[in-house]
Design goal:
By secondary structure, this protein is mostly helical. Helix content is 87%, strand content 0%. The longest helix has 37 residues.
């Protein structure tokens, strides 16, 4: 079996899995933001604004990664580290749970986007 063909197939599966995880995580958090904006409190804290900004960056990163895995993957990985760090700092008791729920899905998707990009580029090199 051709190594380049197998690498391209693996990159395709990694890209599909990354798109699924990233889209699900992004849709979930976008839904939470939308519900909060419609039915939430009228006062928004600075923590809420930072969280909303980070989530918007993550959703934009996933959308970019659908078309350009390298750039979008970098945005998602950096954003997920920032989101996980923010969740760890602001969480009350269950810090690791907060990190795993907020930043971890995006981190996994971002790493998969990047590995898919690298494998795709490696399979193009003659």
């Amino acid at each position: 079996m051709d190594v380049n063909h197998n690498g391209g197939r693996m990159a395709k599966w990694e890209r599909r899995i990354a798109r699924g995880i990233g889209t699900l995580a992004g849709a979930y958090w976008a839904f939470i933001l939308l519900i909060q904006a419609i039915w939430g409190d009228t006062t928004v804290s600075s923590e809420g604004m930072i969280l909303a900004g980070l989530i918007i960056i993550m959703v934009i990163g996933v959308v970019i990664a659908w078309h350009w895995e390298g750039i979008g993957g970098i945005i998602v990985v950096i954003g997920s580290i920032a989101l996980g760090t923010f969740a760890y700092i602001t969480a009350g008791h269950n810090k690791l749970f907060a990190v795993s729920v907020t930043g971890l899905p995006f981190l996994v998707a971002g790493i998969l986007f990047l590995t898919s990009y690298w494998k795709k580029e490696k399979s193009r090199i003659p």
